[in-house]
Here is the input.
Amino acid sequence: MGSTKSVTDANFVNDVLQADTPVLVDFWAEWCAPCRKVEPLLEEIANEMGDKVRIVKLNIDENPETARAYRVMSVPTLTVFKGGEPVQSVAGARPKGDLVKLIEAAF
Here is the structure.
C-alpha cells in the first residue's frame, strides 16, 4: 500500500472518519513552505507503515469546511483520527521520528 492520498470536504467523512485504521490528516496549503518539507516524510512513513495507517492530505484553501470544523489555525497541522475522532494533533513541521510517534500513539 503506502503513499499519501488527497481528501476533500466531500469525501472526508468516508475516507477519514469511517476508516477502519488510524488516519493521519495533513492539513496543508500550496503557499506553505513547511508543508513542502513535511510532504516527503509523510510519503516515506506511508510506504513504511503500509496498511497500519492511512496518510491523507487536505488542502485547506480548497476545502475550508473541514479545516474550519477541526479549528485548523496554522499549517501544516497533522491530526491523527481513530474511530472517527481526532486523537493526536501537532502544528508545524516536525522530524520524521516525531511524526511516527504521533501515529503510533493512536494504536
